[in-house]
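Q: Please design a sequence for this.
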């Protein structure tokens, strides 16, 4: 089986990952990948927003590290991308970022459900105790739907991230999923199968089979990402992810070149 590209890889510039792009690239070549993409945490408009992403002044260094990996592992196709945090009101900043380098794709992710709470941050886990789980899920999916509808992104990252630590609402989430998927479909935006969930408390790929089946029925395309923060995590869980995608009916996934999608068989 030809593995689909691993499009969600981080670098030490984000301050919580290890291994240089060239190390990830060598690992990918060993594992038999033909294509990968770096999508490290993009800078915010204000560098002091938080402490788990590259600074704006480091963007050029990031691009050069990816270019170096391209030169040193020429048998591998290596894409240049970013994982961008979507926050309402940041659209102009994201548009500016999009023009600064020749990105192959942009992943739009929601980590922040308020201006200062990233729901996946283990250091902020106590914040969950102050909120109803269903309220957090609604707020999160509202933002993610806005991200998909913005047209700023090629891919929506880890679509049901609020399950990371096992916080699952009792209510039926189908309406939340359907609104997100309609927005994604309208902008030709893909969703990723992100295998990091397998390594977290939820022990499940993002998104769930339920959400992915709705995505397939809605005609929303897919990509794959390990969300690796170390070279050893590259490609982790891909066999399970491909199986899940095929189980719900997907026969193709997307690759991106210069922000243009191409279909490839799965
Ligand atoms: Zn990260
Ligand atoms: Zn993320």
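A: Design:
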């Amino acid at each position: 089986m030809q593995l689909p590209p691993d499009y969600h890889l981080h670098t030490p510039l984000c301050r919580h990952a290890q291994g240089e792009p060239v190390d990830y690239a060598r690992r990918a070549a060993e594992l038999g990948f033909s294509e990968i993409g770096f999508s490290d945490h993009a800078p915010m408009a204000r560098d002091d927003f938080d402490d788990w992403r590259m600074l704006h002044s480091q963007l050029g260094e990031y691009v050069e590290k990816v270019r170096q990996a391209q030169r040193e592992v020429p048998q591998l196709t290596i894409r240049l991308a970013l994982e961008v945090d979507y926050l309402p009101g940041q659209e102009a900043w994201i548009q500016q970022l999009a023009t600064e380098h020749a990105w192959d794709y942009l992943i739009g992710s929601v980590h922040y459900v308020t201006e200062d709470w990233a729901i996946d941050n283990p250091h902020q886990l106590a914040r969950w105790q102050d909120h109803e789980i269903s309220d957090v899920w609604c707020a999160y999916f509202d933002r993610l739907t806005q991200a998909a509808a913005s047209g700023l992104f090629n891919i929506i990252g880890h679509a049901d991230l609020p399950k990371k630590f096992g916080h699952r609402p009792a209510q039926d989430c189908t309406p939340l999923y359907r609104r997100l998927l309609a927005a994604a479909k309208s902008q030709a935006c893909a969703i990723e199968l992100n295998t990091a969930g397998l390594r977290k408390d939820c022990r499940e790929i993002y998104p769930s089979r339920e959400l992915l089946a709705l995505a397939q029925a809605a005609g929303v395309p897919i990509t794959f990402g390990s969300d690796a923060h170390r070279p050893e995590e590259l490609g982790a869980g891909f066999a399970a992810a491909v199986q899940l995608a095929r189980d719900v009916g997907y026969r193709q996934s997307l690759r991106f070149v210069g922000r243009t999608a191409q279909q490839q068989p799965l």
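Q: Thanks. Anything notable?
A: The chain has seven helices and eleven strands. Residues 10, 14, 16, 41, 229 surround zinc ion (ligand 1) (CB under 6 Å).
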